[in-house]
Specification:
mainly alpha
Length: 119
Amino acid sequence: MIDLLATHHVYLAAILLVGIGLYVVVGSPNLVKKVIGMNVFQVGIFLFFVTSGYVDGAGPPVVGHGSGPLSSPLPHVLILTAIVVGVSLTAVALALIVRIYDGYGSLDEDVIKEVRVND
């Protein structure tokens, strides 16, 4: 068990990040905390994909670089794209939260639901 944790500790970190992010998104009524939880969840997914794309001792797939094992750059490229999309998503979410706060005067999900029912 110790050997498994020592060799796969990055996967454990990814699982913890996904779990923490999911807990914050589901458990917190504050909208800003939900966005932060969503970002922690994304980082866990990014860490998992980058780790799964890593090949120990592999070189880049460049012509003339050698004949050893090659690593695929596809997971890394996908994660770079996902990081850009994640930053954009966070910006849009925070802009919507500002509008929600202006409209309802609170960032608490329960208060916003209560105000909507009373209107």
